[in-house]
């Protein structure tokens, strides 16, 4: 398996995974909108996407968004998306992606990587625990929907 940072050449494969990821989170399938969204991220360079390919098949991706810690005065990365195709699960794909994200965060001098996952997504929670991510018990997460 090969893990690397996605480029425009990976648009089709990443878009298909991204659409499947959204469906996993109970969103309607829309391959064209997913493709447009990923194209914008790659063109604008406002996220970093890593992919895993097994031969010529895209089997997983993660997407990181840059943010900053004012207190630490350093960059942080938001690991917003991580998805592994059903047929590739339990083969170490998610671990490859987490390792690549950590490596990238270290290369860019970041303070940390943050993420959130559904409360009922126990397989993901176990994976993050295994990779030394620490569940935040000091702060509450708030969100204001402005749509």
TrEMBL record:
Domain of life from the UniProt record: Bacteria
GO MF assignments: acyltransferase activity, transferring groups other than amino-acyl groups
Pfam family, one: Acetyltransf_1
CDD domains for this protein: NAT_SF (cd04301)
Signal peptide: none
SUPFAM superfamilies linked to this entry: Acyl-CoA N-acyltransferases (Nat)
Name used for this protein in its record: Acetyltransferase (GNAT) family protein
Species for this entry: Alteribacillus iranensis
């Amino acid at each position: 398996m090969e893990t690397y940072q996605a480029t425009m050449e990976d648009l089709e494969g990443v878009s298909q995974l991204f659409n499947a990821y959204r469906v996993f989170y109970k969103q309607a399938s829309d391959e064209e909108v997913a493709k447009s969204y990923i194209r914008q991220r790659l063109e604008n360079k406002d996220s970093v996407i890593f992919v895993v390919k097994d031969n010529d098949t895209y089997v997983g991706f993660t997407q990181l968004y840059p943010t900053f810690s004012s207190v630490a005065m350093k960059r942080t990365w938001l690991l917003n998306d991580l998805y592994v195709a059903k047929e590739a699960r339990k083969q170490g794909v998610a671990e490859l992606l987490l390792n690549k994200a950590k490596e990238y965060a270290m290369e860019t001098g970041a303070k940390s990587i943050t993420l959130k996952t559904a409360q009922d997504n126990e397989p993901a929670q176990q994976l993050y625990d295994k990779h030394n991510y620490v569940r935040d018990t000091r702060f509450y997460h708030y969100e204001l929907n402005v749509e």
